[in-house]
Write a structure and sequence with these properties.
About 35% of the residues lie in helices and about 15% in strands. By secondary structure, it is α+β, with helices and mostly antiparallel strands. The protein is elongated and about 40 Å long. It has a single domain (about 10-60), classed as Roll (Thiol Ester Dehydrase, Chain A).
Length: about 70
């Protein structure tokens, strides 16, 4: 897989990574760290939103990426 770019500072901070990428699919994972928790001690919705936004962005690039 070649995403043709280094991880962003935001990606490094949250710790997420692409584990599988192919046309129409981007599978990612992110470790659950204490700073990602909300006041109920569950992952904050914003962390899920960031992960989803990134995965959709990669998939939307389509042929611009060489898996």
């Amino acid at each position: 897989m070649n995403l043709n770019e280094d991880p962003s500072a935001f990606q490094k901070h949250l710790g997420y990574r692409v584990v599988r990428f192919e046309r129409g699919l981007c599978e990612m994972e992110m470790p659950i760290a204490p700073f990602l928790m909300n006041r109920n001690n569950i992952p904050h919705g914003g962390s899920y939103s960031a992960l989803l936004d990134t995965a959709m962005g990669f998939v939307g690039l389509g042929d611009g990426i060489t898996p």
